[in-house]
Amino acid sequence: MKENKIIKNAWNKYTEGDLLNLENFCNSYKEFLSNNKTERECVHYFIEVAKKHNFKDLKEVIKNGEKLNKGDKVYYSKMDKTLLLAIIGEEYVQNGFNIIGSHVDAPRVDLKQTPVYEADGLCLFDTHYYGGIKKYHWVARPMCLKGVVIKKSGEVININIGDGENDPYIGFSDLLPHLWKDQAVKKAMEVVEGEQLNLLVGSRPVSSDSKIKNKVKENILSILKDKYNMEEDDLISSELQVVPAGPAKDYGLDRSMIIGYGQDDRVCAFTSFMAMLELKDIPKRTCVCILADKEEIGSVGATGMESRLFENFSAELINACGDYSDLVLKRALQNSYMLSADVTCAFDPNFPSETPRQSTAFFGRGVAISKYTGSRGKSGCNDANPEFLAKLRNIFDNDCVNYQTGELGKVDQGGGGTIAYFLSHYGMEVVDIGVALQNMHAPCEVASKADIFEAYKAYVSFYKNMK
């Protein structure tokens, strides 16, 4: 039997060379996670790295009327928040693609369009949370503000307050335990309400000029004007996100884990992107990497997988190869294989009642295969075919990839969805395969380094060997 069928815990199979490669890979991942906390930052990072590996902008290929040949590498960015990359394979495109899709958005708190106000000598920003969060997780902790402001002239102003070496922190206040009698008896989802997530940004008045009504607000606006040359009205056309401050770090006395913000689903985005860069030779089948937006709120909008973005990208790709027809596009999509690279929950001995041991992923046992996601009676899920799973087991065993199965908790407890079922609409084979996390959707999530490394190896194996 293959080695990874005998050794359940991946740590037990690593040589000294393996451990060195694992640490180097995870160090790169921590740096990525620390520096890229918004979708735009992730997309810009991936494009910068892709260009260094000879990827061309598909928009320029189309504009110049160029043709794509075997081995050519292209990327396509949509609104700087979703990125698709492809390497043209040896086989005719009609035979289908090998696709790995993840998402780069993460639960967070967004600023409202007119956020700035003063109340009782304090300046605050009004917010609206994004994605499934426990709101009480986000209070009384250091936060930073990141994103873009677009002026009427089209000028783009990049905002980053809180993650620089000498930057101040900002954050959401919490009620002291001495006065929480009424708060303590509330349901968890009501302990902190959405309209209480008001970001505290200042308390110092600009001057004693009696003509200025909101002196603290005026001081904050003057700071933004001095640093970024922006007016309050410019916030109407902004996209600003409140995210946890600070870098990702090793976790555990043995440094076997990584803690950091946004690992759902940037852990799978990073590993799948790096797997694509590992394709030094021309792959047999055309390989595609999807780094999508809006998954945390249902994959809606022009940058979400519910849109026609991937279908349009595939059509342009096929057309640039000189093979386009509507029938070729449909056949290519239907004949594709796809890994929905998204996270699942890791077993936590502090909460054993919600996660049955028999069907939950464990730290250190490798990448987690989830035949189906969804909730309760498999609502909103993609249910993968066993024939596809058998093929994956075979290629993973041949490449000594540690893998396990995982579900998202008890059947009647809840659940969650991924982008898998959007791709399955085309009739392709799709399954969820990703890294197991503790603290999912909290400001600081935890993953096993071994699982991160095995996910990377699994994605490389899929790109190279699935046919």
Strand content: 15-25%
**What's the main sheet like?**
9 strands, mixed
Secondary-structure class:
alpha+beta
Mean pLDDT: 93
How does the overall form come out from the CA principal axes?
Answer: globular
Distance between the termini: 23 Å
The largest sheet has its strands arranged as 1-2-3-14-4-15-21-17-19
pLDDT < 50 runs, ≥5 residues: 1-5
Descriptive account of the structure:
- The strands form 4 sheets. The chain has a 9-stranded mixed sheet with strand order 1-2-3-14-4-15-21-17-19, with helices on both faces.
- It is built from 13 helices and 23 strands.
- The chain has helices at residues 3-6, 16-35, 39-52, 58-63, 181-184, 188-191, 215-228, 263-277, 309-320, 326-334, 386-398, 420-424, 449-465; strands spanning 56-57, 73-78, 82-87, 97-103, 108-119, 122-130, 143-150, 156-161, 171-172, 199-202, 238-244, 249-251, 257-260, 286-292, 337-340, 344-345, 367-370, 374-375, 403-405, 415-416, 429-434, 436-438, 445-448.
- It is of the alpha+beta class and 467 residues long.
Which descriptors apply to this entry?
467 residues, 2 domains, Aminopeptidase, 23 strands, 24% strand, 29% helix, Aminopeptidase i, Domain 2, nine-stranded mixed sheet
Explain the layout of strands and helices.
Layout: H1 3-6, H2 16-35, H3 39-52, E1 56-57, H4 58-63, E2 73-78, E3 82-87, E4 97-103, E5 108-119, E6 122-130, E7 143-150, E8 156-161, E9 171-172, H5 181-184, H6 188-191, E10 199-202, H7 215-228, E11 238-244, E12 249-251, E13 257-260, H8 263-277, E14 286-292, H9 309-320, H10 326-334, E15 337-340, E16 344-345, E17 367-370, E18 374-375, H11 386-398, E19 403-405, E20 415-416, H12 420-424, E21 429-434, E22 436-438, E23 445-448, H13 449-465
Parallel strand pairs: 1-2, 4-14, 4-15, 15-21, 16-22, 17-19
Antiparallel strand pairs: 2-3, 3-14, 5-6, 5-11, 6-10, 7-8, 7-11, 9-10, 12-13, 13-23, 17-21, 18-20, 22-23
Helix pairs in contact: 2-13, 8-13, 9-10
